[in-house]
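pipeline: protein-struct stage 2 | run 1193 | O-antigen/teichoic acid export membrane protein
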Amino acid sequence: MINSQLAKNVFSLLVLQGGQYILPLITFPYLARVLGPANFGVLGFVFAIAQYCTLFTDYGFNLTATKQIAENRDDKQKISHIFWTTMTSKTVLLGVVLVGLALSVAFVPALSDVGLVMIFAGVQVAGSVMLPAWLFQGIERLWAVTVSSLAARATAVPLIFMFVHNPEDLWIAAMIQSSTSIISGIIACIFVRHYRAIAFAAISPADVKEAFRDGFPIFIATIAISLYTMSTTVMLGMVSTHTQTGLFNASDKIRNAITSAFLVLGNAFFPRVNVLLKESEARANAFLRKLMIGQCALTLLISLALFLFAPLITELALGDQYANATPIIQVLAPLIFLVSTSMIFGNYMLLPYGYRRIYTQVPAIMAVVHLVALVPMAHYYGAMGGAITLLTTETVIFFALAVALIRNGILGNVMRGEATTHA
């Protein structure tokens, strides 16, 4: 039963990622060419800010709520309480985000210049709050997330080709892309009702306060991680030109389309590790050993292939306007291996085994280092400076997490498939 359910979830996520890769692949080259590097840079800049805001409203609930639901998946009353507490908490955070965006557009010149497009960033964040992916992860019904996300994204494809024809249609492209999150959230709410996984549950301010307290360490780690994974596009938009921002945005989208295939599988693997850990540490470690060997080998090969075929990929996907993107893609290629393996180290090993402090400290420290280095690198060297800084940061984090796991005896026990000791 366990293997069967996990296989269904992995298949659902592979379909989801396949769709999320193929659908943007249809529109990404078109938008890059039609909008041009400068406006494509604006689009990437604005939606990078939207991703930051989404991380703020997520507040680590995608891990904490998922873990709690997975551990209580046979208790409908408990799941309902977790659901309403989490949704209420995220709605409070959404209000903070919308106020913050409005004030930023009013007083920050770099954002005031793209104020109309920034409105749709808020729309995207609101839609993300409506999609309770953490609920479906916890009850291991990830097909609902797949259908909700792909159905919404599929509606955007014909609309982009129908209404976006020149650089002046930037705001239309932003509106279409942001609306998919609202559609996805609505479909997901229908699935929540269909599965009858929850009932109404009264919650108190104390429940919301406890949810914030429990998610805070993961929130800090997630924000820190985002500072060096997503800040590059934002910082380029602040201190460099829109063209340089567009070059980096286009290059990173190609790299990220591949990396996210492995990150999204974590939606199935994370709750599974927690379930196995409750049953047997040896079983959890044996599962992690197989996952690590297979994923590391595969991501190494993909990183090498992306490096070697970067010139061809640039020509086919982006065109002559983005000829300077080839070396940027090559610098970013190793991130496919580094990021996916670091996720195994952090989300599947440190966090489930109780090493929250290390999980939080490493990315937090490196986020500060990354930002300090990024400002001059982005200012003087543009997209290439941003890419080099990001690669350096991810490399240091990879080795820091590996050393922490070795020193605490976790990595050795995982590779042997043996039981380890909680922190």
